[in-house]
Amino acid sequence: MDRMFDFKPDADLSKAERYRQLVQAAEALIAGENDAVANMANVAALMSEYIPDLNWAGFYRVVEGSLVLGPFIGRPACIRIPFGQGVCGAAAQSGKTQLVKDVHAFPGHIACDAASQSELVVPVMRNGEVCAVIDLDSPNLATFDEEDARGIELLAKALEGSI
Ligand code: SME
Fold this sequence. Notes:
By secondary structure, the protein is an alpha+beta fold.
């Protein structure tokens, strides 16, 4: 049955509270739904509602050993990224969050949108392996900090088994 959703962050939230609400909204949206595309699409939409200063928010999925573009909000992006290449490929290969304050200083950064200046990429795990990455791009330098990284890691954890 169709339902109307009205997830929006409250005004003047602390960053920690904003991420808490984002994770809660994501959990509510994916509860009982096992279609990975639907869940990634809704979470991409939620990230763009809850996180300020973004020009791109979405997913790359691991398909046959490389990253393939998944649901996102933003401008059209590169479709396939080999493990180890760019910020997304580094996150997929290492299994570790990549917090990049200035993408132009990151060796091998892949510029999908020339407006992007800083980036945060967090792996999502399934059965102990990376199955996707969450990618956030900002048109400003140093938009993301450790609190954003921890917040998106909580979101990635909440998505385990649902994408
Ligand atoms: N900048 C990313 C590529 C993906 S786009 O930002 C959407 C990277 O270096 O992996």
